[in-house]
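Notes from hallway chat w/ T.B., transcribed later so I don't forget. T.B. wanted the structure written out for a chain they're using in a teaching module, and asked if we could keep both sequence and structure tokens in one place. Agreed to drop them here.
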Amino acid sequence: MAEDTDEESGVELGIGPAVEGAPISRVAERLTWAIQKSEIDRKEGETKIRTPDGPRALSDILAEIDETYFPTRQSFREAVEAVIGSGPVPTGEESA
């Protein structure tokens, strides 16, 4: 297994402040699909998700989603992104 380094991934990492919360894609990767919304909430509900408006608990985001079952990772991500929107995630520098 390859080591997880920025050199191998080809991504140059900046030196700026850390961004609070986890990307929704990282949370989605930790789950097994298909899955019920209640199971996602049980396993990951307290996880803070990065959003354009700042970090939010996944449980709060799930409460705004009507679907109760997600057959695929993509269907979950689309439902979450419909609630949180898309765009740049604020860093500590932007709040100054």
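Follow-up for T.B.: The mean pLDDT is 83. Might be a good example for the class.
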